[in-house]
Specification:
The chain has ten helices and four strands; from the N terminus they run ααααααααβαββαβ. It is α+β, with helices and mostly antiparallel strands. The radius of gyration is 25 Å and the shape is elongated.
Length: 300
C-alpha cells in the first residue's frame, strides 16, 4: 500500500514532468515563430508538413498541426503504450495552441533578417526543446513519434531517424520554395540533430576505470569508502611475467576521475590504470538512488 509520502512524491513528479513538457513546447514554438515564419523559412517535422499543406491547400498551419498531432497520438498510443500517450496528449493540443498564441503575439516582429542566423538559432531552440521533452518521457507529438516507434521496433537511434524524416520533408519543399532556403533548412536540421543528441546523452556518459596494482585490495576498499562507488574484481595474468593478480574495475563520473586518480596514486604510484568513456550507466548510484545503511538509519 502506498504511503502518503509516496503519493506526494508521485504527484510532485507528475507536476515537474508537466512543467518540463510545457516549457519545451513553448521554446519549440518560439523558435518557429521567431526564426522560421518571419523570413518565410522552410521547416522540417510537423511544421514543415503544415507549411506544405498551407501552401497547396490553404490549410492554416496551427489547424493542420492539431489534426496531424491527433493522428500521431493514436499511433503513439498503439505502439508506445498508454503511459507515453498520456504524456504526449498534452503536447498534442498544447503545441498548436501556443504556436497560434505566439504567432498572434509577435505579429510582424522580425528578430533578424539574416537567414543563416535564423537557421542556426531555430536549430538550437528546436533541438533544446525536443531534448527537454523527450528526456521527460514524452514527445512534442507529430513527427517526433515515428522515430520513437522505429527505435522501439528496430533500435534505430532517435536522432538519426528524425534527421532522415526531416531532410525528406525539407527536400519535398523544393516544389514551392527557393533552393537556397532548402540549404538553410538542412543546416537547421543538422544543428538541432546535434543539439538533440547532446541533450539526450547529457548526464549519462560516465568513465570506466580499470586499475591494475599489487595493492588492489587497498585500492578496492578506498574506492568504496572514499568515492562511494561499487567495484568489481577480475582475475588477470601478466603477459610478460605470467604473474596472476586482480584488477579493480569501477565506474565514476567525469568529475570524480581526478579524485579516483589521486586515491590510486596515493596508494600505489606504480599502478597501471586504463580509463575510457562509456555511453550510459544504469543502476544504483547512477539511474537509481543510492540506499546506504546510514541513510536508512540502520547504522550507528
Amino acid at each position: 500500500m502506498e504511503t502518503s509520502e509516496t503519493k506526494q512524491n508521485k504527484a510532485a513528479s507528475v507536476v515537474i514532468q508537466t512543467a518540463v513538457i510545457l516549457f519545451g513546447l513553448t521554446v519549440y514554438a518560439a523558435g518557429v515563430v521567431l526564426f522560421i515564419l518571419p523570413l518565410d523559412m522552410i521547416a522540417a517535422g510537423t511544421t514543415g508538413l503544415g507549411l506544405m499543406a498551407q501552401h497547396f491547400f490553404g490549410i492554416p498551419l496551427s489547424g493542420f498541426v492539431a489534426v496531424f498531432n491527433i493522428a500521431m497520438f493514436g499511433l503513439g498510443w498503439l505502439e508506445l503504450g498508454k503511459k507515453f500517450a498520456a504524456t504526449t496528449l498534452l503536447a498534442t493540443f498544447y503545441y498548436p495552441f501556443i504556436l497560434d498564441r505566439l504567432t498572434a503575439l509577435t505579429g510582424d516582429f522580425v528578430f533578424t533578417t539574416d537567414p543563416m542566423l535564423c537557421a542556426i538559432f531555430a536549430g538550437i531552440m528546436i533541438g533544446f526543446a525536443l531534448g527537454f521533452v523527450i528526456r521527460s518521457g514524452a514527445s512534442t507529438g507529430g513527427m517526433d513519434i515515428p522515430p520513437l516507434v522505429l527505435q522501439k521496433r528496430f533500435k534505430f537511434p532517435v536522432s538519426v531517424s528524425m534527421y532522415v524524416f526531416d531532410v525528406a520533408i525539407l527536400l519535398s519543399q523544393l516544389l514551392f520554395r527557393d533552393r537556397e532556403k532548402i540549404l538553410y533548412g538542412i543546416i537547421m536540421v543538422m544543428v538541432y540533430t546535434v543539439i538533440l543528441d547532446k541533450m539526450l546523452m547529457m548526464g549519462k556518459k560516465q568513465v570506466q576505470a580499470k586499475i591494475i596494482s599489487e595493492k588492489y585490495e587497498e585500492i578496492n576498499i578506498a574506492v568504496q569508502e572514499q568515492l562511494d562507488r561499487g567495484t568489481t574484481l577480475f582475475q588477470i595474468e601478466g603477459g610478460h611475467l605470467r604473474k596472476t593478480s586482480m584488477a579493480v574495475v569501477t565506474v565514476v563520473s567525469g568529475r570524480e576521475l581526478q579524485k579516483l586518480n589521486r586515491i590510486v596514486m596515493d596508494i600505489d604510484p606504480e599502478a597501471f590504470m586504463v580509463v575510457h568513456q562509456v555511453g550510459e550507466v544504469r543502476g544504483r548510484g547512477f539511474t537509481e538512488m543510492k540506499r546506504h545503511l546510514e541513510a536508512e538509519g540502520l547504522k550507528n
